[in-house]
Each structure stands twice: as structure tokens, then as C-alpha cells.
Records
---
Amino acid sequence: LRMGLVFRAYDEGCAFRYFIPEQPSFAGFQLMEELTEWRFADDPTCWATLYPDHVNSQEKTYDRMKLSALPKNRLAGMPLLVRTGGQTVALAEACLVNWAGFFFRHRGEGVLRTELSPLPDSPASTPHVAVIRTTPAEGPWRVTMCGDDELDREVSRRIQAASRLQRLSVARPQGGTRTRRPGFAREVPPRLGRDD
């Protein structure tokens, strides 16, 4: 089996993805787990959403805690934010296409490991399989973004503000969108061009 890694590095972070090229005698595969880990030397503060299992709404608040306080029997959703060495680090994934999404599992001693969401039980797959693919195949990007104190406050503010939404806009399928808020209503044209 030939497998590759593709890396990208930026001023604000890095990303990598796995790549399995087309090869003789290996037309496809079933993936049960991925052993990607992030290791933190100290016991940093983190902001995480915790879930009991893979089947959930992905709608929870972020709780602030020490990394060592992440329960090993719970899954942490994405993005996961960690404050370490004067930097805020956001761990996430990108370009998730025909692949299982993942959660973080705290392994102890500052280690976070990916845990892929398994496919629903089906006669077409083996139990606990997360990905069924043919080659060539590439996984999603595993992303690590870094920033200073300002990013820490900005990301935290955005996460908290999103959880305080009281009313949402109502969209009509034909015509345009009417935004309804207390004391505010306006029509939005159905098609806005580049110069509008």
C-alpha cells in the first residue's frame, strides 16, 4: 500500500491531508480509524464542545476548561481552541468530501486524537467502518491555525455571540428575502449581481 501526505504551511498555521494514489491490486478500502494526534506539552486552557457520541446536533456551547479536564469518555467537537505558549491554536478540518468527519478524543497527558464518525450500520459495510472509498482518494485537511491574544478574544467573542442569537431571518423561496427583527423590516432583492 502506497500512501502520501500533503502539507501546507502558512504564517498563521499549517494543514495536512492523507492521499492514497491509484495502485495495482488496491482498488478501494474501508477505513475504521485514523491515528492523527496533537500533543501539548503543558496543560493548556481549551474551549471545547463535548458530546456523548458521534450522533448529535453539533449545536452546543463551548466550555472553557483545562485540557486535562476533557473527559476521556466524551468526544470534543470542532473547532477545538487551545491557549498555549501565548498563542491561541484552533484545530479543525477542511474540504470534508466523501470522508468521515472527526471528533477529538482526549487520550491523557496532553494528547488529542482524531476519532472518525462511523457509518450507520449497513449490510454493505463492516461494523465500525468510517470511510468506504475507491482509489485514488484524499482525506480532508487537518488544520492547525495559530494567533495571538487578539484572535483569542475575537474567536471567543464570535463563538459566544453565535450562541446568543434570539431571532433568525425568515427566507421566502420565491422573490426575495424579508428580514424580520423587532422594529426592522426590509426587502432584499432576489438577485444581486457583482456590482450591486
---
Amino acid sequence: AFDLQNSRYLQKCGAAMQLPLLQMERNEWFAHSNRFDDFIDSYDGLKLHALRIVNQEDSHKWIIIQHGIASYSGTLLEHMWEADHRGFNILAPDARGYGMSEGKYTGLGWCEHYDLISWINYLVNLDPLAEIVLFGINVGAASVMNAVGDYLPRNVKCAIAEGGYKEIIVKISGEGVYGQLKFESGGHRVQRVPKT
């Protein structure tokens, strides 16, 4: 887990993340959209937020858009506008520690994939006929990739990961750190199925 409040990376990017200034057409579209602020509780007790846009009231086509690091759901207006104009309703969660979601740390897609599964279930409860596309950028892509390796409802029809990563290399140092972390793992363990 990485500390979001004290990140030098976020400070360089301008941690006071504001809604980007987009073209007038997209801003006007957003202002006139049917928007809802939805909240759920994560598996570890955090209050999580998502922006839900329902401009296609008779449609069961949904896209869940996962943002990347140093971002939040409001920075994805370009993607939301495109999805809306292709006939999708939209759910854009704020990852833990970003936007209106609680949390101090990011799991770089691991903890967030459990949150994504919770949002999928939330959406299926709202619309049992939902046909869902998952779309993630950067760490959001890692969330999507981790989620599709898990059990998902049949409502999920497609997953798109833009700019995900295959590995992260970090240096961990400190007194006694090896003894504390030697049995920890953040990735999926692949179990081999013997040939029969």
C-alpha cells in the first residue's frame, strides 16, 4: 500500500485535483446529465463513492469506468461523454483515497478490484438486466484485470484495460522488515491443474 497524502508523485502532479477544463460541449453535456452520487461500504469499512450518470433510461447497457492514479472520477469526462454518446449509462467510482471516497492508501489495483466487484454487484442490484462493460485506465486497468480473474456476475460482458502494468518493482528496507513481510504476497497465485 502507498500513502496517498504524503506522495511526492501526487505533489508534483498537483494533488489539489480539480475537474479539468474540457470543451464547452462536454461541460454542457455533464451539466445537463442525470447525475447521482452513490455510496457503498468497502469490505474493509471504507465509504466509497461513485458518480452514476443515467441519460439512457430505457437502456440496460452500462459501463463502469475506473480512473488511474493521481486522478478521480471527474477527470474522466471525455470517456464518459463518449460512452454516453454510444448509448451507455455510466458508473464512475472514485477509488479508495481519491475524490469523495474514504481511504489513505492505494493497493495499486489489488484492494480496488474487490471494490470494483462490489460496484458491479451494486449495479446489478439496481438493474438486474444490466449488460456491463468494465473499462480501466492505469491503476484502474489493474483493478479491471484483477477483477476479471475473480468470479463475476454474468452481467459483465466485456473488459478493457488501457495502460495496465504487468509488474511493480519496489525496494523495501528497514529493521526487521524481511521477517514481517516474507510470507506476504499481493498477486494472484496461479494453481496448476494436473493433466488427467
---
Amino acid sequence: QEHRLGTIVAFHETTDQVFLLDNLRESEEKHRLIFENTPVGVFQYDTAGRITTCNNSFVKVFGSSRKQLIGLNLMNLADKDLVQAIADSLTGAVGFYEQEYEQMHSRKKVPLRGYFASITSKNGDIRGGVGIVEDFSEKYQSDRQIKYKEEFESLLMALELDFLNTDISDIEGTFNKGLMKMGMFCKVDRAYVFSF
């Protein structure tokens, strides 16, 4: 016959753990909402450069579908500057890309700006990367228009100086050269001036 001396009952307070788990779930939900609804393309990739997750804005910028993008190895893209920016991030540097990107399927060219950074573990090991990309078509077009206007004004100033420094006996030659320069700038293959 066994003799019991007593019973030990242990209680473990779990209120703090439940509170922490609730906070963690809430934080994850906030981050998911930000990730999915941000107006710029956000994506993550592993150490081999394969896309592991992306948001809808990224899908739109790349002109593809999520199904085609998840698992895509970015190191195999034709755009070597973009590949280099991503490779830089996997060495611990911040990669940067800003130029026209040709979309994979539509072949449409989109002015694209991107920043790429590594994701590291607690001990500093690189575990992949994250990229943020945006289509900056409006600013790109605006910058191109400003550049075109500046180049056109510069050409007009140069032509004006040519005319001012030309002897009247050589004005026809200067005029023809000016007309040729203007035609080249405007990408016109022929320009004619008719006199009556």
C-alpha cells in the first residue's frame, strides 16, 4: 500500500504570453496590410535571387502575374544593371537601379527606380533581400521635356550667334547650316525653304 504525503498543484500564469501573442498577431496584420496596399512595388527574394513574395504594385510594375513572378530568379533577367543592383544587395550593400526597364511579357518600357537591401539574421548572416520599386513615368517624362526644352533653347542661341557673326555675303550658307542643325534636332530628314 502506497502512502501519499500530499499533492502538489502547479499553476502557470499565461496572461503575459497570451498578451504577447495577440500583439504579435496584430503587428503581423498591420505589416501585411502595409505590404499589400503600399503604392510602390515591394518584394522579397532569397539568397539565390528568387522572388519569395511580392505585393500587387510589384506585379503591376513588372507587367506580369504573381504566379509567374513567385519563384522567378532575378539573376536570370536580361537587364544586367538590375541584376547587378540585386546582387549588390546580397553582399550587404544597398543596390540602386534607375532607368527604363523592359517588362518581361509586354516588352513595354517603363521608367523604373528601385532600391534593394539585404535581410540579415540576428548574427548578421544574409538571408535574402527586399526590394522597393516604383514606376516614375510622370517624373521621367517631365525631366525629358525639360531637357528637350533646354537643348532646343541652347540650339536657338547658337544659331542666333552664328547669324550675328556671319558676314552678309555668307548668310545663305549660314542659313542652310542652321536649317540642317534644326532639322537634325527635330529629326526631320529634309527641310525646305521656298522663296518667292
